[in-house]
Amino acid sequence: MLAPRSLRKAAVPPSLLSDPSPGSLQPTRLAVHVNAAGSSCSAYLASGCRVYKIEIAMEVEMLSKGKESLLIPINAEVISSSVVDRCPHRSEIQSVVLAEGEGDGCLILGTVDSYGHLIVSRLDTVADDIDRASYSVPPRDCGVGEGSWAGLCFSPMHQSTVAVARELCKCIDIYDQDIHVRSLRTLWYPSSFSFAQCMPQVNESGSMLAIAEGSQLSIWDLRTSNNGGCVHRISGPIGGIIYSVCSSPSGPIAVGGTDRTVTIYDPRRWSALSRWVGCSKYEITGLSFSSVDESFIYVQGVDYEITCGLWKGNERAFSFRGDSNWLGFSKCANTDVVAGWCESGSVFVADVRQDCLSVIG
Asked: How many domains does the chain have?
């Protein structure tokens, strides 16, 4: 059983960022990382053409709850704030992603703007000079046309493999560092995608990509060219849109969207394992499986709320709310530190751990 340890609220300094850009519906402009000691959390925020970094103190543990297990935040101290100089985009950044690099204290920061321009930087979290190296990949069409939402994700097995999605172009580009490998052409506008971390059909993970396009969930194999690489399609809500998709290290894939339902699919038979109906009051635009207990999932809705619940039993564990529309939603890669960034400039950070009493019981 999961139990929240603390919920903090930190304000982005107005001198650093006073008026964030609106962005798209998908809250993909936030990435968080907790240092090895767990004393602070680094939040990377994208607004306009720049990426900003704030460091939030996490040493004090205090938790208070309201009605219906709603967490009440406490004010947190912003230790430092700065601008990340290695992201020279010319248009609005749409997505920010952090991945664990090789070696201690190394992070990989990926950003993509509304025209598909990709920039990947290696950050040193230990030394004062955080910038190690970076590379830039321009879009295949040189940025011609109308800008739209764009996303990116790193392969869990091969960190040099990066996938970049562009909504209006209906295209997913696969890169090996700065080398273009192939392009996947979707039938509908892609709104979210994720590398499948564990697929029983293949011996090697990292070659399968799950894409939410319109009301369908499509599965793509990067090793095949038949049917453009698409190996399976699952129809979702009729007339609805899937806004978020995420995969679990053990295999299940979760989707959510306008139907306000989280559906968990079994990749062995592509049948629904569970449906958590009405887990959000409004559209679901963000999902993430728990790293501590994969039977729990975090659900981010348009109504300022983030909910954690047991997807197998359709049971809510706890939730917390922001004070305005979400601009970013993120969870740390290997720990349950969940963060949300609001357009008011507030960053909410929840630290969730395994409930020791339930384990002993």
From this structure: 1
